Amino acid sequence: MNEREIISLFNGSAGPGGDELVRGIGDDCAVLRLDGDRLWLVTVDTLIESVHFNIDWHPPRKLGRKSVAVNVSDIAAMGGSPRFAFLSLGLPQGFDPPWLEKFSQGLSEACREFGCTLAGGDTVRTVEGVMITLTVIGEVPADQVTYRSTALPGDEIWVSGTLGNAAAGLELCTAGDAGSEDGLLLAESHLNPTPRLGLARRLAGGRLVHAMMDLSDGVATDLSHLCIRSGTGAVIYADLLPVSGPLQRTAGKMGKDCLPWALTGGEDYELLFTAAPGQGGAILRLAEKEGLLTRIGYIDAKSGVRLAEGRPGRQNPPQKDVSFLGYDHFRL
Amino acid sequence: MNEREIISLFNGSAGPGGDELVRGIGDDCAVLRLDGDRLWLVTVDTLIESVHFNIDWHPPRKLGRKSVAVNVSDIAAMGGSPRFAFLSLGLPQGFDPPWLEKFSQGLSEACREFGCTLAGGDTVRTVEGVMITLTVIGEVPADQVTYRSTALPGDEIWVSGTLGNAAAGLELCTAGDAGSEDGLLLAESHLNPTPRLGLARRLAGGRLVHAMMDLSDGVATDLSHLCIRSGTGAVIYADLLPVSGPLQRTAGKMGKDCLPWALTGGEDYELLFTAAPGQGGAILRLAEKEGLLTRIGYIDAKSGVRLAEGRPGRQNPPQKDVSFLGYDHFRL
What we know:
Chain A has 332 residues and is of the alpha+beta class. The first copy, chain A, has ten helices and 13 strands. The radius of gyration of chain A is 20 Å and the shape is globular.
């Protein structure tokens, strides 16, 4: 049973939600109707010690900030702004109080940074290890909400920032090899990601985006979700995937190719979105000062996500299906 | 560091919530302003294998229902009705798919039973064991919300149902000794609790209740929370604590006293509330057909929760402070 099959199991028995449930299971957030003009967005994410983070080298203040950031990224992906956070914190018997104080400090600093308030929660004991579940409620003007399911054949596919840094950073941290200047930068992508809240708000406000989501499990998997929900396929070009200088140099030193990191690496918390061709200039103007935006391919009416060699322009380049090649918690 | 100190740590850094946060950390739910007439209630609860449940004898369908029930109990305690549920489910590598199907069935049956919709969530891998975090959003008419913090000196203290069944049931299950008719009934209180949703709605709608909360950590601890939030103290009478026939008979067979179970046993998910003296008749009429209600003592202007021997009427009965004698996850 993989992650999608588990989600389907619960989705099948979700039951009717009434008029106030605009969108249930299957997008970055659930969407609830608040009043005529505003929608509420609800997202839940769990981070588990030794699965999502290593307490030996993840500084507690950065972990507190990351717990908020990964949820804020889901709110941002739907065009919204975070408002309220709810923490369910599991701690083992004999946890370290100074660790908890630094974690709490990072979490509350992040709430202030992203404009939300810690409004409730729950504290429980675990058998082993720290477990962090954060629920975030955000809001979005009803005419600006962006879904995964509304990509159209012919759309151009865009990503923000660069891809693969967090996965490479995690690999370096795990190997105890993140000491170089490049290594520290990559590690920071894993330890302390920043969701693209401002950029997402500008994109949603500009109403040029057809479909949007955040990149948490690698573009191969996340774009597959977007395509399935939209009833489309996609082609992306290997040479268009944006890769950072630190990742290129690190891969070079290790004698590795950047592509697997960029294609399947999780936890980038960048934006993945589609827009009609011909809107590129307007989109780049909207994104001004918000960092790099790159077109990586296009949506089509076939099925699956296909990786084409090279870059556009070449006649019938070799393609291979890379659907769901990214991170899956339950695939061996 | 105990549970209250951990909560204080996060409470201290929660930050301002704006006009829409009516009540933050410290009650059964956070309270958000939805529109003029309605408030939203948000609660989060986590159940962890080998801490909150034993997967060897907790049937998965009952565990699915209980995951919803414990959150619905928090919504009920504030006078509300559950609307939306969000599940964060942690599963170990190699979990049993038929187990998950039954769990999912119990969860969705409970959503239907209590009138809420599973609207989203998250699935993650754990290092070991199952971990269930449910966030439930409910609603309540703004003039019917009931808080912990509004008890008044002179109020009578009421509880619904009987106390201590779930704790005794857990003890029997753990010892593999729940096979008798009484044992099965007590075990059911632990395995498959039913929140007092209908009763709580009638009490809140009748507007006779001053303060209300649910009983999750034992009346000694829960009444201590209510008193601290209300700036009051309380006296409860040992002989007034309602105890079920099965618990009395089981305690008798074991040569034990019922009182420790009734006073400190967790997970009853009954209601604890206060009301002005003289409202007893009206309250009992409201609760008609909703089961037993019992007055167990009174609120005063002193501090702490004191247990008096016997029942009211005796001059200066011996008292002892039982504040926070109930369940605390982090006290050894």
